[in-house]
Amino acid sequence: MKEKVVHIYSHTHWDQEWYFTSSRSRIYLLHHVKNVLRVLEENPDFSCYLLDAQSALIESYLQWAPEDKARLSALVAAKRLLTGPWYTQTDQLVVHQESVVRNLWYGMRVADESGGSMKLGYVPDCFGQGGNMPQIYRQFGIRHALFWRGIADNTLHETEFCWQGDNGDTVFAVQMPWGYHYGGLLDETPDTMAAFLQAKMAPIEARSARTNLLYPHGFDQAPIRENLPDLVRQFNACDDERRYQISSPLDFITVLEKEAAGDVRTLHGELTEGKHSRVHKTIFSCRADLKRLNNDIEALLVNTLEPVLAISRSLGHDYPARAVADIWKLMFFNAAHDSIGGCNSDETNRDIAARYKQAHDLASNLLELHTRQIAIRTPREHDYTFSVFNPLTAPAAPQITFEAWLPGTPFILRDAAGHALPYVIEAQTDLTDYVLNQTIRLNPSQPYHKPERVYRSKVTVSSSALPALGYTRWYADFSADGASQTQSDTRSWIENDYYRIDVEENGLLTVTDKASGKRYARQMLLVENGDDGDAYNYSPPRHDRQVTSEGCLNGLDRERNALRQTLRLRYRMPVPIDLEARARGVFDGVMPVTVEVMLQQDALIRFTAEVDNQVLSHRLCVHFATDILANVSCADRLFGAATRPVQLSNSLRVWEQEEWHEKPIAIEPMQSYVNLHDENHGFTLHTNGVREYEIVGDRFDTIAVTLFRSFGYMGKANLLYRPGRASGETVVATPDAQLLGTLSFSFSWRIYRGAFDDAQHARLSKTLMTTFPVYQDSDFLNGRLRFCLSDEIRCYPHEYSLLTLPDGPQDALLSVVKCAERGSGLVCRFYNPHLETPVLIPPLKNAHCVLLDEQTPAQERATLKPNDVQTLYVAIA
Q: Which of 191, 200, 186 is nearest to 238 (CA)?
């Protein structure tokens, strides 16, 4: 009797775009799925086939072949055609936590509507595994995971293990050491078949002593092997040691778990080792322009649009669930590991940018419609009235910049209580004829205000407190001028109650922390060097030249008004124009950089940097020095925070000898911030740009954040940081990835006293990345400019708050508040962003705990430990 069972799972890994476009992929997908349906129906011995765990493939197919829905659903229901739980194979390290959750939510929904979802965390090709994925899986009823990349054999020699998230939740997991494509080719020649099987199975058996073994059969865009059942019979006939069978990967891993019976090792958290499977540690900075679009739109969706839609539905408006789903699905296509990575052809990346544009436009216009529907139903006593929305669940008083259409005369901007609000007019353009010619008067007999002049104006306001998860009204009072005037000079310092910032003669900044009196020199150092890498990996040239902004200051201005103080610094950095010049030590190019350093009345130092990039194949970082001699860094990740070593010393000593696929480097991902701290104080850099950082310096005391990197080819071989073959196509040039032209970046720096958890880094990042919408309610704007709407009865309150939650250091942080996808309630998702401190979940009326699927009841909890997440369903009367 044969003791060992080889589970062959047949599949295709279907990248929906890469060096090819999504259009090509969809055409071939139509052909592929038709063949799969035919083969499975004609041959009952072909027991199951995995369509890459992406239910988007099912949805795409049925859009063009709706006549096959019944056939396809029957095969899915019979667990012969396997799909889900993902919508697309998402990245787990840089996309927003809500993007990962919704990818699973919509993925399982589409799969369930087609007959059923495979409940397996199947991740064949993503570049590393997120540390909090075990608890995310468990909250979707997924108890097992199967993946390829992220574990070195000196960390785990065997293939099966218990994977524990940082909140303690676990899944039984299996790594495929040689990837999903290991068995993509099958020898069909009788004389050589036995030797082929022995050669293939020997490495698997060397890594696993179990009876049940996994043999993945498939590869990228692989055609279904129609004669696989016959081949399996031949395998069994020629191999006396093993029994082969076609299995689903979930059936295999379930049987293996029973066989192991708890006799497995436990691995914790993030899995990003690149010894045998490249994880492309620096893909986080590839195509910085696309990364920025992704981050901006995720923030718009999660932090602003979904809360405003919740406000709108509570006032009686319909929730546009299908429109929201379509926006998210555009983002899911872009969140797939290659797409968000940017490691594609230029043509494909243009498609990705187009999807970002469509998602942004849909989200922005949906937001405008719902803020407008609320504004035009709210009583109005002034011709220039503004409805101002707060998507946060605590009162907030931010500075808000918005577009207004004004008559150009002096005015005081007042809040609902009549208090004057400080404001600055940033820019004005006279568009009188254009705007007034767009006005449509549905009832010409009714009077309306028609201004003599109309200026499109950019206005920044220092807001009074806005109601939590609600709105209030502002209005323009033309009895006097309340605008703050901006003064300019050439002084080289600014200050507020928290900091004094001095520009030194060498162009660097010295920040004085007024709370401690301590001065921190060498702040905001721009560091440029070459990039000999490709679309997957940053890699320094073997002959590099590093250039910094020290000594490159070419001009300085200072501006002051009631809202802020700003330094505008202009640098001209002499740099090599390309890799050839860099190798020769020739500085034949210039990179102009303009940096604005801004102080408002809070403890943040805000930066915007604009780069005129005309240089090829290089990288630009910004460095901030601290007085912390760090062993570890801290950064946020999905539903929590992580500490990481600043240097991978053990791996660095052996990586060349052991022939790692990638050099182990401590360039790491973040969601929105990176931090160095000790028990008494710390330093945090917040960003909504590239989510990549490194701790550098002789004493590892300096935070370096990548602003951008550029390169000329999709794939290159024999890189300094990645020896051997190319990861992408070497013949695919990527001139767009050189990012020539104007590039803009924003980030903030903060020095704080006290413990790390008390400093509320994630809460501050969320506020920084939240847009506070403003809608101007003026009669003359109703028309072609915005589309014309009918008059409505103005019956809503002047001010409104749907929900107010505590917002202190001991309180759970809200990941999102949104309309429930099932029922008329609210979904409030809380998590603990701290490293050590438990947090409280606020008691909410008419609320009960559910899992991430928004419907399965969950255990009621009053507190959350670090890296834990809890969703509440709140019934709304």
A: 191
